[in-house]
Amino acid sequence: MGSLKEIKGRIASVQSTQKITNAMRMVASAKLHRTQAMTANFLRYSAALREIAEQLGAVSQTAAEAKSVVLIPISSSSGLCGSFNSNIAKAAQSRLDAYRQAGAEVLVMPIGKKIIKEVRKVQDLAADTTFGNLNELVERGDVFSAIQSFIATLQKMYGEGKIQKAEVIYHHFVSMGKQVIETKLLPLATPLVVKKDAQQTEGSENAEDFITEPDSQTLAEMLHPRMLNAEMYGLLLDALTSEHAARMMAMQTADDNANELLQELTLLYNKSRQQAITNELIDIMGGKVALE
Fold first, then answer.
1. Which end of the chain is more exposed for a tag (fewer CB within 10 A), N or C?
2. What is the bridge-based pairing of β-strands 68-73 and 105-108?
3. Cis peptide before 214 (omega within 30 of 0)
4. Average per-residue pLDDT in the chain?
């Protein structure tokens, strides 16, 4: 049991830390509500855009087996968000091991300072950190040109035969207390619109009769990169929303732990103070008895 001064100092230290965690929790909560609304609105737009692209045939199937893959794990650029970043690192390592066992060459293009740090620890790993700050640009609202450059780079690599698949690993926001890791393939293949025979399409429930200007192939080629840009932006927004939720929950947990610790220290302080008073009374009574 420490002295009263030491216990009082620990109480003051915990109270000071609690003020910081409480402030960070409120900041994360405000950011979460903002990004949550942005994500919900944009994902509806992205889903509608993809539906139009699919109806035009602008979405090509990605090969199930690929010999050259780009992994794009998305983390945060700052800490204090619980296991958010470590879970992404574990998921990325798992996918990397799986592709290597299948004999595929893997290029990692990490987004976020935390995952970049983890990637650099892995030996004999091809990595490109050129677009590692996309998550920070999303939060600042200045990301669209960077995403266009990122998607253009992936499409160029795909067109040159350097990669056959691009897979994004990110946290999907489910609720305030739940964020799950998901993987999503980016359809990089150039769309090829195949005109169906009129007799085959007639009577088909899924057939759509579109009159397009310009022709369907040109429109699909124009729409394809825009759809990819929208999907990538939506994934970054989703990951950012999950990050703020994870940080808010982590700070809430820290605040709760601080309250428990304060209660324990306060109880210990009261016990120590009571014991000190008792000892003083015993000394006084002992002195009185000695004088008598």
1. C
2. parallel
3. yes
4. 86
